[in-house]
Amino acid sequence: MPISIDLSGLGNLGSFGVHTGSAPEPFDALNGPRLAGSQGSHPLHNVRAEELLRPTDGAVLGEIVLDRPAMVGEGITGTLRLKATERIDARKAALRLIGLRLDEVTRSREDRDSEGHVTHSEFWVETSGKLFIEDAFLEPAIPASLEPGATVEARFAVPAPRLGPPSAHLGESIVAWALEVRWDIARGSDHFVAVYLPLAQHPDLIRAGVGKQGGVSMMAGVPVGDAMISVNSDLPVPAGSEMTANVRWPSAPGGTKGRVEVHRRTNAPNGAEGIIASMPVDPSQLAGGAEVRLAIPAGSAPSFDGAGLEVTYVIRVLVDRRFRSDAAIERPLAIV
After folding, report:
1. pLDDT value of residue 2
2. Distance between alpha carbon 23 and the CA centroid of its chain, in Å?
3. Judgement on whether residues 193 and 208 belong to the same structural domain of the protein
4. Are 124 and 90 within one domain?
5. Is residue 329 part of a domain?
6. Using CA atoms, how far apart are residues 57 and 147, in angstroms rounded to an integer?
7. What is the pLDDT of residue 14?
8. Residue 181, Cβ neighbours under 10 Å: how many?
9. CB–CB of 182/54 below 8 Å?
10. Are the beta carbons of 225 and 252 closer than 8 angstroms?
11. Residue 50 DSSP SS3
């Protein structure tokens, strides 16, 4: 009979050693056991996207300073100031805009005996990342060769991704951006200086209905059968703010209690639907209209679809019915 090994109490340790997760440079600062966990765990939940960035490999020090916060579809301007700590002789060098997609992925492994029977099995979660955008720019011109102590200072103006995706922490996946200067070293490791780039979602994209995040989610009132779920606050709703919703549901069934919730939905590989806000409501008030205030947590991922990922939100109204399944209606909601 196969023997399953329970890893629930072992953190990142499995029966065959320490599991690790990884992301490519320059997002490799946390590569190792912190980016992995036991079966059913979510190692990315306690990781901030900023922590992933390694600012330099050590050959060049300095800074890349933005003039203002970056936003999807707009220009990114600023100044870079660099100083070589050793001799650099590269084939080329350039300022680059890079985008990372980092996902939790469920893994498994089996050991079998000489007759093919499973003797040990193991399941765990690890993170795997890839760069989905690597845009290099001709301006400003970066010297390919530098002597120790040499400095470079230049202004830059580069375009942000026209349609995104924005920076987002989905819980089980992360979309992160960085600006970096990279020296392409022949037959050796590249040198780099990088800065984490928070890239905000552009409200106008959602208002224009670009991708899947616009449309009905931007309507003040959305009919659902004989009901109407309205958002009285400005749309899209900013994360970290309070929104007001009104529900009028003439055919709402009687029940022991009711709730108005905001649900987050994602197609992240290890993702799950989550409730980010909830308020109780008296079911008897729904027929004539009930108003609730819902606090959208700061740091909630904006509504978006891009890099093969998407995040959507709905306002969901539920009535708990004794000895019967809950009754529910919902409408899309846009968040930035």
Report:
1. 36
2. 14
3. no
4. yes
5. yes
6. 16
7. 41
8. 24
9. no
10. no
11. helix
C-alpha span between 317 and 302 (Å, rounded): 22
> CA 53 to CA 131: how far, in whole Å?
13
Cα–Cα dist 315/193, whole Å: 43
Supply 187's token pair: 């037959």
Q: Are 197 and 178 in contact (CB under 8 A)?
A: yes
Query: What digits encode the pLDDT tens for the residues 238-282?
Result: 999 999 999 999 999 999 999 999 999 999 999 888 999 999 999
Q: Are 61 and 192 in contact (CB under 8 A)?
A: no
Q: What is the reported pTM?
A: 0.88
Nearest Cα neighbor of 261 from 278, 246, 248 is: 278
For the record, the structure tokens of 158 come out as: 């580069």
Q: What pLDDT does residue 212 have?
A: 66
Question: Are residues 245 and 195 located together in one domain of the fold?
Answer: no
Q: Specify burial of residue 280 (Cβ count, 10 A radius: 0-12, 13-18, 19+).
A: exposed
Residue ranges in the chain modelled with pLDDT below 50: 1-15
223 inside domain: yes
129 with 265, same domain?
Answer: no
Task: Determine the Cα–Cα distance for residues 304 and 163; give it in Å rounded to an integer.
Answer: 10
Tell me the per-residue pLDDT of 169-205, one tens digit each, with 9 for 90 and over. 999 999 999 999 999 999 999 999 999 999 999 998 8
Supply the range of the domain harboring residue 63. Answer: 13-200
